[in-house]
Predict the 3D structure of the following.
Amino acid sequence: MKYLYKLVLFVFIASPAAYYAQGFQVNLQGQVQQGMGGAGTACMQDAASLFFNPGGASFVNGNSVIAGVTPTFARGAFMDANTHQVSRTNSPVSTPFAAYGLFEIKDSSKLKLGLAVYTPFGSTVQWEDKWTGRFALTRLELRAIFFQPTVSYKITKKLGIGAGFVFATGKVNLQKDIPLMDANGNYGHAELSGKAQGYGFNAGIYFEPIEKLSIGLTYRSKVKMAVNDGQATFNVPSSVAANFPSGKFKSELPLPSVTTLGFGYKASSKLNFALDINYVGWKAYDTLSFDYENNTTSLIDTKSARMYKNTFAFRAGAQYKIDSHFAARLGLAYGMTPVQNGYVTPETPDANRVNYTAGIGYETKHLKIDASFLFTHLKRTDTNTETNLSGTFKTNVVAPGISIGYKF
Amino acid sequence: MNTTLYKITLLAITSTILVSCKPKFDVPDPDKGNIDASNYVAIGSSMTAGYADGGLYYDAQKNSYANLLAEQLKLVGGNDFKIPYVSQNSIGVGNMGNAPFVLGNSTDCQGVTSLAPVKLAAQGDLSVFSTNIYASQGSFNNMGVPDVKTIDMNVNGYANPYYQRMASSASSSILSDAVAKNSSFFTIMLGLNDVLNFALTGATSGSITPVNGAVGVGFEASMNNIVDKMMANGAKGVIANIPSIKTMAFFNTVPYNALKLDAANAAALTQFYSTLNPAVPFYEGNNGFIIEDASQVYSYRQAVEGEFILLNVPLDSIKCNKLGSLVVIPDRYVLTLSEIATIEAAINDYNVVLKNIADSKGLAFVDVNSFFAKIKTGFNYNGVAVSAAFVSGGAYSLDGLNLSPRGNALLANEFIKSINNYYSSAIPQLDAMKYPAVTFP
């Protein structure tokens, strides 16, 4: 338990900021599911089911606590189509984490209560100094931590329902350069920083129609992260400082709904398969607006079109139990980008992507250790209709993760 | 596992991950295509020379589109691009002997201090004109000479102080010096001064070069002569057209109707003019300035939409001495609709000639007129708004006629696009935001 304590402590101290997967959504949750391409809506293997399908969490045996972290190494780069100059990101290693506690109510094998804490959205993108797109963005840090208390009820041996309330808290920090140069050749800089909060829910149904097949259907609602009391700080040449008064701003970032249909198939006692189909309501992210408290002729409220579209993602994975202790996993996921042509930005230089994942697990009566590995490569060539920034973004993401669980 | 071994392993894994996930690009190699960039000569006037902020000075010369293009040509075999530099320590000098402008705090007649172009000194560095630098620094690749007209290019001993400081001899012409350089590649952006000297005086003095006439008289023959001589050795090149004056900050910054009146003043002025001819009604809000117009009975009338009040109009007199209301704005600060039409007609004629020359002689063509029109409309470049707005638009220098370094970089990119397109070359463009616009104190 001492090690578990240390791990949990580490997880909470480390920055929960995360690099992206699919827009700025981070699909790094339970390590078991992650090893299987991120599919888990119809496979109730551990307490991470609280996230993947609250309806099926009651089908997980006993009480358990799991905590895991997935250090994500992302390297981004941009080649300008006109100058052929290459700029790179210096983004810090991010550590999306997830912790789940699932508990049986005494004298009831049907009802389970749980708490899930996870970071489903977020990214920190830090571009190198003086890069081509610095007037569009130099740094974006998004953090969102979801707290999800959950009830899961097993109606029959084959059918379960469940729901969780989501309280989300986070912060945003956006920085870019301002094209006003002082006599020393330094451009101005803007920093918009604020805390955000939002609410939502996560509900699901789990059904086992026949012995080997399971089906899950879940809906995770949209969460509107509102920044009501943000602080805008401008650093510009002193002669124009009055035109850029530092002060409050308001903004809002919608975290989209996700509807998932999942299938699980137990081919044998050793081999099982999982398939999830996500439908993500990215259309909610239509506009990014900043409403400044102190407007001037130079500092006007902005509305930038993002025009995200709803997308699908397909996740498939397999698990093979080598013996009673060890399991091996493989997975593959294909995600469509919500970002339309003409709207690619350095915030989320998103593209259609294939995720390759693998994982291993070790289990005893009380202890459960799982590790996973994810690799993905993104490439997107575009000319942004607002900024005219034109070129190719590439990002490589490597995310090895580990979790430790205790069953009792 | 002991701690050291553990740490080494962790470090090794981390570095492997970091190195292996660095994205790679197939960066296209610069390619000269069908040109020989080894000896590039630029022909033109103020903008080519790097005249900016009302003067010629070292930093502006360094940031001329011609030198920025030369920097990119070095990626495809270009050599040293020699410029008749003003000393780096000099403040430089304008064509009236004036000092260049910088943006500074200026207190107007009403005691209000605000940002405005102020002259760096009471006078420009006239020593620039007193020394010929050909022997010490020549021969020159940048043959751009401020104020030169197309018809001046062939004049031996051409008496322009900017040329006299760089001429190879007392009897040379700009064109003979340029031809003597035996270039392998050249650019020509010339013709604006054939109308501009007239336009800048409010059409009160100077003249517009006619299209027809012999070399040294007419625009077409003079331009053909320049191109033929530059191409005689087989050199390839680019020819640019010239911008409409309607696009330029100098003519667009002071609105024709910036006479803003309250109801009482409007009534008083209406009363004042009611006994004169023509009577002029004034209204609360914006009104056209009263301008000089010799065709009227009392030689004045109210400016109408589309007419230009020039940037050099004395703003203090407008603010404090009733210039433009009780006092007529002199003709030299005004371009009327008919004067603008005359100037624009000449520019259109020149541009037809320039396009024909490009097509018939096989030169790449840069539509500088469209480029300036695009600036006038305004566009975004890598997230930065570029426009013809004076000071804040980013494209123009503080004289409102010539470009800022950023504007020059954008113009150089237009040349690069045309060269790449016509000569199948692959010369990378410049990141224009690495070059300053007007800097702020």
Q: What stands out?
A: Residues 252-335 of chain B form one domain. The interface with chain A takes residues 17-18, 20-25, 27-28, 103, 105, 115, 379-385, 394, 413, 428-431, 433-434, 436-437, 439-441 of chain B (CB under 8 Å). Chain B has a mean pLDDT of 94.
